[in-house]
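FIELD: query
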Amino acid sequence: MLFSPALILTAIVVIYLLMSINILAEYERGVIFRLGKLLPQPKGPGVILVFAPLDRIVRVSLRTVVMDVPPQDVITRDNVSVKVNAVVYFRVMDPRRAIVEVESYQYATSQLAQTTLRSVLGQVELDDLLSERERLNQQLQLQLDQHTDPWGIKVSSVEVKHVDLPPDMQRAMARQAEAEREKRAKIIHAAGELEASEKLSQAAHVIATEPAAITLRYLQTLTEIASEKNSTIVFPLPIEIMHLLKQFTGEERKA
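FIELD: result
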């Protein structure tokens, strides 16, 4: 059975159209090059037609990319060598520029993140690197976003994950922290001694105005000793009794 040329041509056209159908997901865009020239607008999402070999499509994902920056050797401003790694969150905002302006935007962003991490963290001291993470993260994000904006890339966040200190520096920081704790302990102890001395001075003034108060204090001390079930009890002799005995002895001698 022979097919007519019109039927064969129709079949070829139908097959060509079917092969030209491309389906893009909601998060994808298609950058189309027609005869090597970039079309004004990217295609998608949904069903699009790509007429090969005249057209060539490059699929670009618009989802946020999470990129792990490998550990970088950083020398801080106070000459401490540390290893720092981070994570970068970015997404493509302009698919056309991401494909045309740079060969591989993911590789370029990764390399730029590594160099920016070393340059920014090399300008701060170790204490700032450990304590001011939020400020450094914002500074890294601003610099990265400024450099990737011509590529159509938006860097939304940069987070420093881990700072690996040398063992000698870890021991030095441990000794410093221990010295700080001892300092605070001594200050607290001295403050307690000062407060106790003030209270004792006030108590001495009260006892001086009320001589019977010292006797009550002696009895209270005996009660505390007795509660510990000691076999020996030392009974303190009130000073007032000694004064009374001296006065009584002096009166007898005069008589």
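FIELD: remark
The domain at 65-169 is CATH 3.30.479.30 (Tetrahydropterin Synthase; Chain A).
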